Amino acid sequence: MSNLREKRKLENQKKIIRAARHLFSGKGFQQTTISEIASEAQVGVGTIYNYYASKGVLLFAVFSEDMEHMRERSEQSVDLNSGNVVELLLEIMKGAMVFFEMYPKRFWREILHVMTEETEEMITLRQGLFGFDQEVISWVETIIKEHSFCFRIPVDSKMASQSLYGSMIMLALFFIYDDDMTYEQLLSQIEHHIQFIFLGKLNES
Fold first, then answer.
1. d(CA 77, CA 69)
2. Contact 144/161 with Cβ under 8 angstroms?
3. 20 to 30 Å CA-CA from 139: which of 57, 159, 161, 163?
């Protein structure tokens, strides 16, 4: 009986997250109601609140699943033993940017706006997303440290990873607020920035 209950719980959560992702992407975060999510997921409103205390917590759950898919995709496509650290970092950062392709620009603009609100819900959401940032920075730092043999001068892996990720976030903001900037142009800019950051620091091949 407990296994059946657990299976039903997981199925409900999957339906709720799938419905929330669809509605958040199509209508926006603020315009989407828990009732609409419940209706699309074919569950009761109370069922949603059994799993997620608020709409912000549900959004974080959606982001967490997206992040896990991004991580799995990156692990499958990135050769961590590659001797070319620039190409390796480029693949990792491209994988992270997929996060910004999953939703329309208007959605990200809205999220950036609502996250400035000093409500408990938005503070919790900011803290959760900051955890994602720290995870990616830590991964990049490890890659740079493990590929120290690629550099002809000492490179501070912590400083380099923070600088690299800071550039990526800046480019992501340009992409979100520039209606004319395409996703392909974003990836191209990422490549240029990575090459610039490591210009003159790499061993000659």
1. 12
2. yes
3. 57
DSSP state of 204: P
Q: CB-hemisphere CA count at 13 Å for 54?
A: 12
Q: What is the DSSP string of 73-114?
A: HHHHH--TT-S-HHHHHHHHHHHHHHHHHSS-HHHHHHHHHH
What is d(CA 102, CA 200) in angstroms, rounded to the nearest whole number? Answer: 35
Which comes out higher in pLDDT, residue 75 or 132? 132
Tens-digit pLDDT profile for residues 81-104: 666 888 888 888 887 788 888 889
Q: DSSP letter at 119? A: S
**CATH of segment(s) 54-197:** 1.10.357
Backbone torsions φ then ψ of 193, nearest 5 degrees: -70, -40
> Could you give the 3-state DSSP secondary structure of residue 151?
strand
Query: 28 φ, ψ to 5°?
Result: 105, 160
CA–CA separation, 205 and 76 (whole Å): 26
**Are 137 and 162 in contact, with CB atoms under 8 Å apart?**
yes
H/E run at residue 180: none
Model confidence pLDDT, tens digit, residues 24-39: 999 988 899 999 999 9
CA-to-CA distance for 77 and 85, rounded, in angstroms? 15
Type of residue numbered 11:
E
